[in-house]
Amino acid sequence: MSSIVYCSYLKTELGNLLITANEWDLLGVHFVDEEEYEENENYITIHAKKEITEYLNGTSKTFTFYNFELSGFQEQVLEIVLEIPYGETKTYRQIAKELGNEKCILPVANALKENPCLIIIPCHRVIGSDGALHSYQADLSIKKHLLELEKKHTEE
Hints:
Elements: E1 6-12, E2 15-21, E3 26-32, H1 43-56, H2 72-82, E4 90-91, H3 92-98, H4 105-113, E5 126-127, H5 140-155
Parallel strand pairs: 4-5
Antiparallel strand pairs: 1-2, 2-3
C-alpha cells in the first residue's frame, strides 16, 4: 500500500527545515540547503512546523508525541534521547551504559546520525564525556545554538 508523502518547509535563523509526513505520521525533519520539492502540506506537517517555531522562539519546551517508525538498536537509542529533559544533556557513554554496554559509544553515535526528526528527537542534547560537541547530523554550530537556546530558557 503506497501513501502520499507531504512536505513543508520552515525557514529559520538556523537554516531551512524540510518536514515530511504521510497521512498518519511525521516522517522526517531535516536541514536542507534549498527547497527541492514542491510544498504540499497536511495537518501533520503544519502542526510540526508550528511546534518547531514555538520551540525555536522559546515559547514551548515540548513536542507532541509523534509515532516514529524505528526499529532495533536505533529505536532503543532514540527512545533514551526522547527522555532527556529540556535544557539537560547526556553523554554518548551514558546512553551506551543505559543500553547495557558502555563500550558501544560509536554505535550510539551512528544511530544518532540517522535521527529522522532533528530537533523533535533531541539528539542535540547528546554530548561527549569530555563535555564537547562531537557530532551532529547538521552543522555543529546548530547543535551549539540549540543547547544555548535551551540553557537560556531554562535559566529564565
